Amino acid sequence: MITTLHIKNIGIIDDLTIDFNEGLNILTGETGAGKTLIIGSINIIAGGRFSKEMIRKGEEFSYIEANIYCPQNNLAIDGNIIVSREIHVNGRSLCKVNGRLVTVNELKDIMSQIIDIHGQHDSQLLLNPAEHIIYLDRFIGEAMQVKKEKYQNLYEQYTNIKQSLKNNYGDEKERARKLDLLNYEFNEIESAKLKMGEEEELEEKMKTINNAEKLQSSMNNISTQLNENVISGISSCIKNLEKIQDCGEIYGQKLSDLKSIYYDLQEMERDISYMQQETEFDEGMQKQIEDRLDTIYSLKRKYGNSIEAILNYQITIKEEIDKIQNVEEVNNKLKENLEQLTTKMLEIANEITNQRKENSQILSEKINKELANLEMPNAKFSVDIATSQNFGPNGLDKVEFLICTNVGEEAKPLVKIASGGEMSRIMLAIKTVLASVDKVSTLIFDEIDTGISGKASKAVGEKLKQISKKEQVLCITHSASIAAKGDYNYYISKKVQAEKTYTDIQKLTEDEVIEEIARISTGEITKIAKEHAKELRKAS
User: Fold this and answer.
1) Choosing a second label site near 300 at 20 to 30 A (CA), which of 98, 167, 266, 308?
2) What region does 78 belong to: left with phi over 0, alpha with psi -120 to 50, or beta?
3) Does a structural domain hold residue 448?
């Protein structure tokens, strides 16, 4: 049980320490005084979600610490556990159990064995059919957990093999479709007969073709000028130098140099002539080059941004084709393992189904008994179990809670029947039944009296009193009937000092308890209201 709770910088709570006790601890007080913040703080220290907006305005962090006495819990040291959680505005968070740092998930696992909190969120969970199988399995207890653990180990292997088969194209139609696609892509690349550097070469040719007219004209002019002017002029110069080469060594040298230039120009003229021929083309050649470039561009759009990338992709395709063609042996082995797993899983799943069906009757009877005690004598709670052929993480079953609240009506899903007040009592009935199998030592109820009054409220109070004889119960309430059942009553109030709001809590004396019950009953503390409060108190 929680013996001491210390809260610092949560909402309007500045620095608050509360000493709780065994039995039924009742929390009442003004609206907005911080009652829900106290329960919220316990939820945070139990590993629940935290928003930095919950940190008190102007502060840098929030801190919650609880001293918990649970001598039968194997997590305790000398019967006590000190749990703390510190959260800063920058998002930094520290969780500790007996001074040892733990993760939030570790904290949640530890505290789930100690504390069970019921609020409006739990009613929403109860309306979700996916949660119903969890409630039923919790009721069945350890025997179910052992079977489920064994089943879920097999189920994990089962899903892994199914995924491997999918990745290995285990479906024959899928494999055939993939193989057809890969063969098409491979053959398309193969038939193109791509060559490295081919694209650049073709683009250069296209550039020449696109400038052919200009090139023809310029090259023709160059050839004419070389032949008619430059070469013939140099030839004439050579003849004149030959006539005077005997007149001195220098003339012979110049004749040699000029002949060298002459031969170079002749070579250049021949090159120009060849280049001029290359600029000659027909439309068929242009079309051929354009078509080839279109083919390359099309393949680039599909398989890579260069011929090198396309050819590398072709290698990858070939490897995948080989893998698919040779995967049959691997898949056959996987399918064999899958068949063996399926047989084992089916055996365990059927055992789980039978166990659920047997215990669903017991659970229904127990909950119906509790509902009768909670002023719902005509309500008939039942558990519907539908079994399919498809394995899921919890077996083959789909579990849904049904209820009939009036005589002569048929049972329907909770979401279609139950009102807010009915949901509170149904949840309390389930909590009461599960308390016999759960190992938690503290049950917390946040406004369990929502939507109920009169005899129903009194019945809820009596049920909380009954539960508190075995487990510690903390309960926020606005009901006088429930408040009157408290073993220990706390009053939460708020005050304003220096333009800041502060939450305060006071453990009430017996006279103060009478006055608080009177205030809740009528809104005023009158003599008649106090007498009524005393009567409620005596009845507790």
Assistant:
1) 167
2) left
3) yes
